[in-house]
Amino acid sequence: MSKIQVNNIELDYEDYGNGKVLLLLHGLGSTKKDWDAQVPFFSKKYRVIALDLRGHGASTRPDNAYGVGLMTEDIKAFLDQLEIKKATFVGFSMGGAVAFQMASSYPAYVENLVIVNSGPDFNDMGSIGDDLLKNRTEFMETKGLELLAEEISFNMFPEAHQVDLRNAFEIRCKNNDYNAYYQSFVTLMEWGLGDKLKNIKTRTLVVASDMDYTPIGFKEEYVKRMYDARLSVIKNSRHGVVIDQPDAFNEVLKRFLDDE
Fold this sequence. Notes:
The chain is an alpha/beta fold. 42% of the residues lie in helices and 18% in strands. It has one domain (2-122, 193-258): Rossmann fold (3-Layer(aba) Sandwich).
C-alpha cells in the first residue's frame, strides 16, 4: 500500500501492472478490497489502481469534509500527483457517482467511463431514494453501524454459498468510522448531475445486476439520456456484482475495453 497527500488528507492506494490506466472506485462503506477479483485479471494488460476514498479504509477520515464533489477533487489531485493524464474510470455504487462527476467536471481525464450499479442522480431516485435515506439513517441512529453492516452484507450476499463473501464485506463495513460513514452517505444522497448528464461525451458502459436495489429500467432510462452509453446486464447478481459475479463482470468489462 502507498499513500498520497491531496487536499489536506491522505489517500491510500495500490498500483499494479503497466499500460493504460484503470482507476477503480469502491462503494459506500467499503474499501479498495471491493476490487480483489479485478486487479489480478486486468493488471496483466493494464495499469490498475485501486484506492480508498476519503473517510474509507486506510485513507484519512476527516471530521466534516465529505461529499461527491470533494471526492472528485481528491481524485483529480491524485492523478495529477501521479502524472496520469487519462484513465478509464470504473466506479461501483458511490464510486460510480464520483466517476460520473469526474466525467462531468474533468472530462479530459476520463478515457472511458464504467458505471456499476449506480446512477447520475442519487438526489432524484423517487421513492427508492427517499426510503433508502430515511430507513438507513433511522437504522444507524437506533441500532448502530455494526448491525447495519450485518444487514447490508446479508442483503448483498444472502445465499448459503456466499457466506465467505458476506463475512468479508461485513468486516469491512464494521470497520467504518460512524461519522465518516454517516457523512459520506448523507452527502451522497444529496448529489446529482441533473441536466449535466447529457453533456458527458465520454464512451460509457453501464453494468447492471438483475437483482440490484434499483431495477434495470432505472439504468435503461439514464443510458438513453447519455451521448455514447451502452448497458450490460449480469444475471444472478445483486448489488455487489464485482464481488458476487466477478468472472461475468470481468468479461463484460474486457469486451468493452477491447472494442476501443
